[in-house]
Amino acid sequence: MPRSYDDDDDDDDDEEEEEIEYVLFQGALDGSEADLKANAKLVKLGLMEAKELVTDAVSRRASISVLEPKGNVAVGKVVIDTIPHPAGKMPAKRALATTQMIKLLSGMDINDRKSPQNGGMHATYNDVKYKLYVKTEPVEGGLEKLTIQIVNDKEVIDSPATAGMSDDFRRRLREMSTDGNGLVIACGPPGTGTTTTMQMTVLCVDLCTYTVYSLADHGHADLHNVNAFQIKEEHDLETTFDRMLRMDADFVYVPPITDPTILKSILAYQDRAGFFAEVAAPDPATAIAKLIELAGDPAVVANALRAIVTQRPIRLLCEKCRQAYRPNPKVKKSLGLPEDLRTLYRKFEPPPPPEDEDEEEEEYDPCEHCNEVGFRGRTNMFELIPINDTLKQHISSGFDPAVFRKLAREQETTHTLQSDGMRLVISGRTALEELQRVFRPAGAAKKKQRPKRR
Ligand SMILES: [Zn+2]
């Protein structure tokens, strides 16, 4: 599904026949070789389609491309800087060939369309290298939903700094590791990168001084100096923790806490090592409520809990077209912005179309850097709530999510999402409007956007 290129040519002097550059597929990530000869028919039907699908996604800087069969058609979607966009439709048959072709190139079994599969391949587009992580899930009618995660080799998040954790935030996490027992959890809304936050939190530990063992699935991440630990078949979790402690474990990175058994084991060992774990909950208060439910006793949760981290992705203003403005003193005051702050930035807005039809439209140069979106790229805001005595007291004596939120915000040691977002606004990397969008309650009415002018 390539974008359609305009061919209205009245005043464009430099618009020659535009040659579309296609992505190059360069082998499965697992090194397996696709037998293209034996699958000549599939190659004929699906290779070009597969190239078009991936080229469209990569050229739009998408991080995710989805092709999902719905009846007789398959619907395409891409996620660009956290925002989903439509990516066309194609007949279900063509989608089948596309998906099968991508599976073949990604080292997956094309004869199996009934079980979920994972694979991936290397690719190059415009001399930039990408990794495509491919996932298929069976849907009705013997078809599959295809999801491709696209990772630009130059934009890999491989350190707390590249994830967007500020110096101050990293320093605080690092300081916490000096007396490291207890449980540190990460949580956040689905799809906002909670696993990455947990991994980057683990990397904030001083890994030259302390030993970290991991039982968690690291996914695509390369967590150097975090030692993957194999559970022996005959061992349960507690025997495994004992083995780790004998091998001088200071910290243990465990899989997400989903059931009472894993939490019980952690609680039994949390005074001998520090633990890192994800909890599937959209926010810290909900995560604590979940832990209390699993443990059956708020006091043991309060006693063990050391800190909670969470995150929210946010788009960055396009540096080429962002617009500076002088913030109004009243706004500055109400938002707690520094008094001497002279400039903020917002996204470029094209001049409004003239009200009188005879009037000429105001000229402006469309920004090619961000494709007129006004934003390009993204980072994360992070929150850190150390569970101090006040918060422990509250958790063990009748935890109330609303009261907890208020109390947490009042603690000087808390580093909130909002303050982290303001840091990005003040530095001009994002806009107040974008911050408001991120914090707008789900389901709130979206502002109508002016149609794009070309
Ligand atoms: Zn721009």
Structural overview:
The chain is globular. The protein has 14 helices and 16 strands. It has 454 residues and is an alpha/beta fold. It is 31% helix and 24% strand. It binds zinc ion. The site of zinc ion has 6 residues, from loops. The site of zinc ion (ZN) has 6 residues, from loops.
Summarize the SSE layout with pairings.
Elements: E1 24-28, H1 40-59, E2 64-70, E3 73-80, E4 83-91, H2 92-105, E5 117-125, E6 128-139, E7 143-152, H3 160-163, H4 167-176, E8 182-187, H5 194-203, E9 212-214, E10 226-228, H6 237-246, E11 251-253, H7 260-269, E12 274-278, H8 284-295, H9 298-304, E13 305-317, E14 323-325, H10 329-335, E15 344-346, E16 375-386, H11 389-396, H12 401-410, H13 417-426, H14 432-439
Parallel strand pairs: 8-12, 8-13, 9-10, 9-11, 11-12
Antiparallel strand pairs: 1-5, 2-3, 2-7, 3-4, 5-6, 6-7, 13-16, 14-15
Could you report the average pLDDT, rounded to the nearest whole number? Answer: 91
Bound ions, cofactors and other small molecules, one mention each: zinc ion
**Helical fraction:** 25-40%
- Span between termini: 21 Å
Q: Low-confidence parts, pLDDT < 50 over ≥5 residues?
A: 1-13
Report the CATH architecture of the largest domain: 3-Layer(aba) Sandwich
Overview in brief:
The protein has 454 residues and is α/β, with parallel strands linked by helices. The chain has 14 helices and 16 strands.
